[in-house]
Amino acid sequence: AIQLTQSPSSLSASVGDRVTITCRASQGISSALAWYQQKPGKAPKLLIYDASSLESGVPSRFSGSGSGTDFTLTISSLQPEDFATYYCQQFNSYITFGQGTRLEIK
Amino acid sequence: QVQLQQSGPGLVKPSQTLSLTCAISGDSVSSNSAAWNWIRQSPSRGLEWLGRTYYRSKWYNDYAVSVKSRITINPDTSKNQFSLQLNSVTPEDTAVYYCSGSYYDILTGYYNFDYWGQGTLVTVSS
What we know:
The complex is a heterodimer.
Chain A: E1 4-7, E2 10-13, E3 19-25, E4 33-38, E5 45-49, E6 53-54, E7 62-67, E8 70-75, E9 85-90, E10 96-97, E11 101-105
Chain B: E1 3-7, E2 11-12, E3 18-25, E4 34-42, E5 46-55, E6 59-63, E7 71-76, E8 81-86, E9 95-105, E10 110-116, E11 120-124
Parallel strand pairs in B: 2-11
Antiparallel strand pairs in B: 1-3, 3-8, 4-5, 4-9, 5-6, 7-8, 9-10, 9-11
């Protein structure tokens, strides 16, 4: 099974900061990667699909990049509502998720 | 707008069968562009995709290797819903279970997990 490794596992940042989260796949997955945001007690919410396409309704401060094995999610200017846990997901071969990155307020 | 409403017991005894249902509104379980998934989340296993059912002139199922011997996902066209059955549960199956609808994107060739149920905490305990 394809494994996804996210880094960092947790991150402290301030409102207005630029933040980057990395997801590395154990083998090449082309652009078959999505990013989700999850808040406590809620289901994950799709942010980015096809590695770099912004889901409808998601603010443009979110962006994704990468292909093959290395991917990034960037939040250009953190807003208070962005403090949450972020997951990557691959669907090149079955479906697996990264272990998550918890984004906390500094 | 698709909405998914989950139902089922929150407590299951070890060795018994976990059963959950996901009712779909805003689309059909027989949609030719959707797949209907079950995913679970626990502190020890994180987010884990369990399997899906979908209709493309006939019904198909895909299951995760980790649960393949114990899982069944069935569509119910009369009620426009789909279900999860997980047999022979142990405490390791304790998790929040989500149903999700994923839609085929013709431009990318991938399925996007656009819609999720509210989640059901299932505890396996005697």
